[in-house]
Amino acid sequence: MVKKLLSALFCGLFLLAPALAADGMDVSVFQGDVDFSAARADGIEAVYIRSSYGQAGVDETFYQNAARAETAGLPHGFYHYLEARTPAAAVLEAEHFAALLRPLTYDCRPALDFEGYQNLSPAQATAVAEAFLFRTKELLGETPMIYADTYTASARLEDSIAVYPLWVAQWDTAEPDLSGTPWDAWTGWQYTDRGLVPGVTGYVDRDQFRDGIFLHEEEHARLCTVRAGDTLWAISRRFDTTVAALASLNHISDPNLIYVGQILRIPGGQSVSVTCTVRPGDTLWAISRRFGTTVAALVQRNDIADPNLIYPGQVLEIP
């Protein structure tokens, strides 16, 4: 009788556990020329692609990998390798990451690759990670995920970070050990760095993903930063929606009361409105190159009288 009760309890707990949704891998320039169709045919169900690193770095195979995964019909997402050591620098990296993702379609939530922070205290490391994650969510309207190994998760991150899903790395074990970390469950698990997959030359990281990695329909709403002179009616016209829909989605009690700099969610998956904080030494030309736009478009969007006069700390909206 005891055995039957224990068996029933075990089965119940198993059924309540988050379901594994995808057998996956993650790739970067180090995997070279990837054949995603061959990988998918062998059972790969989701792939994370490195898009970027630092404030301006772009993985050499990012665009190729993104296009090929899309063509192969393989669910995919992107991750950014963080180099920042301060929250301010992390914000700039998030803006770089969001600008790269904005023109693309993807199925999996954006991810932060967070490693190598042994020289920072837990409070400092957490502040850096949270600055990147918060700004990414603010710009893309989607809750990002954080990748960290079990040591970093337990020794360098504080409890507040657990509002973001965890993609944990722990190799050669039957199950990742989350004891001592802010999380009680994982959404992604990188279980080896020596996987072999058809279509990939040499070793590749292998992962198991739960369904939490996938973006749900309600997360495809995008954001808009209110500009001087904006009204809900003007914004509704710009994004082909209605004042009522905007007010409802953003919990606005008075549709006549919005303010400059306010960030509104836009129903229906329209393009995100990205902002950029001017850094020392920046020019409009440099910013236009960084975000894939033009000086003329920046001038028009931000009502800039003198294109040669911008200042550090100024917040520009990116067309």
> Which homologous superfamily in CATH is the superfamily of the largest domain?
Glycosidases
Model regions low in confidence, pLDDT < 50 over at least 5 residues? 1-17, 269-273
Q: How many angstroms separate the termini?
A: 67 Å
User: CATH topology of the largest domain, anyone?
Assistant: TIM Barrel
The biggest beta sheet is recorded as: 8 strands, mixed, barrel
CATH class of the largest domain: Alpha Beta
The tally of strands reads 13
Strand content: 15-25%
How large is the count of helical segments?
A: 10
State the order of secondary-structure elements, H for helix, E for strand. Answer: HEHEEHEHEHEHEEEEHHEEHHE
Strands in their spatial order, largest beta sheet: 1-2-4-5-6-7-8-9
Q: What is the CATH-assigned architecture of the largest domain?
A: Alpha-Beta Barrel
In brief:
With 319 residues, the chain is α/β, with parallel strands linked by helices. It contains ten helices and 13 strands. The strands form three sheets. The protein has an eight-stranded mixed beta barrel.
